[in-house]
TrEMBL record:
The lineage of its organism: Bacteria, Pseudomonadati, Bacteroidota, Chitinophagia, Chitinophagales. NCBIfam families: Por_Secre_tail (TIGR04183). This is Beta/gamma crystallin 'Greek key' domain-containing protein. Belongs to the beta/gamma-crystallin family. Pfam families: Por_Secre_tail. Residues 272-316 form the Beta/gamma crystallin 'Greek key' domain.
Amino acid sequence: MAQTPPATWQEHWFEHNQLLNRKFYDNDVAVYYDNDVSSSVTWPYTYMGDVWRYVKNVYGSFGNDPHLFAVYHTGKYSGGHPSTYFDASHDNRNVIDVGAGPWTSGGTGGDLDISTHEVAHIVEGASKGVKGSPAFPIWGDSKWAEIFIYDVYLGLGKSSEATRWYNQMQSSTDNFPVAGTHWFRDWFYPIYHNYGGTQVLNRFFTLLAQYFPKSGNSYSRDMNWGEFIHFWSGAAGLSLKPLATAAFGWTATFETQFNQARNDFPFAYGTGVVNVYKHCNYGGYVTTLGVGNYTLSQLQDMGVLNDDISSVKVNSGYQLQLFQNDNFTGTSVTLTADASCLVPNNFNDLASSLKVTTASLTTARTTTEQPIDNRLAIYPNPVVDELRFNSIQSISGSVIRIIDVMGKEVISGRLTSNRIDVSKLAVGVYTLVILNKGNTISQRFVKSH
């Protein structure tokens, strides 16, 4: 049973020296005010409890004490700060401490924003029982908090606050890693919107706790940019290199770090029908592929280097054709089963392009788990000029829509064939939607180059 929070609490951190009075508590939150906070301010009692319950439901527990300690000041200590149960400085409690008030909005706008912002730092600094935030030097004080705030508002049913925040973030820019970067608009929101919402946020911290270096119960170092993109790709279930390129640019340093991260932390992005590995015996980085034709540039967008494949796994009912040169030319080898090393095939570290095919769509559907709509197969993916697709049902005459990461329809029309020209689309991630006799079939794809 949770210990009852103390009736008073003497601050003893930074310049804070107020005697705090407990104004409200339940099983999840304890709200404290200094003497200058108006007694008419009651919205934190409900709101902060709701936020903390939501956080624990999504990200798990944060220490043995189930309470969030929410501290409010008026007329002093402008801004706010967090602390986690790892920190003796705040008596090993999960704390948000905010000022300068006066908090009389009734629980709207900026009062909610700053309170929720500080909870975001607790999540990044103590999720999954590990202390620290290796990504903090990359996303800074506010970038993670921005998508966290949006998710919390949606999760708590505060649609008007979510809309306000979304609109506010559309014009928000930063100068890191380059001037004019739209973190929310071009990076976090597309990931959130397209690859799992709340779950994709949680998966990032799950992967971090599972793979990133630790010393005891603390992370032992910070992430670099390549690692950052690799871990978010793992959370999203596909390579986010194209999205990162569009959002941040792509430097030679990013490329080197990204490739090294995939070797250091060899988890796959999502699921597919073929896995290709850097080393023999399924070692090194792994890239998961669906049915499609992959040129060298497309493979590189997914993190596969030239002449770098040494072992493969091929699902039953599929085949993998490796080509020595780009654009499906030169010597080739066809594999219909796993190969722990391509040396006996005389094809170790020789592949520059490849094709993944299936004998029949029906076989494919019964031999592999599809992460998204299995009624529609699209290829190649990533695509350069022409997207082709097969469906298990007749879709001739159906309405087709292609939607970008911002939810904007960029192509629409009716199907007259099993292919569509996407050459004029910008590089990025899109969703293909087919509306057929009252049914909706969808698949996402990556447009490259």
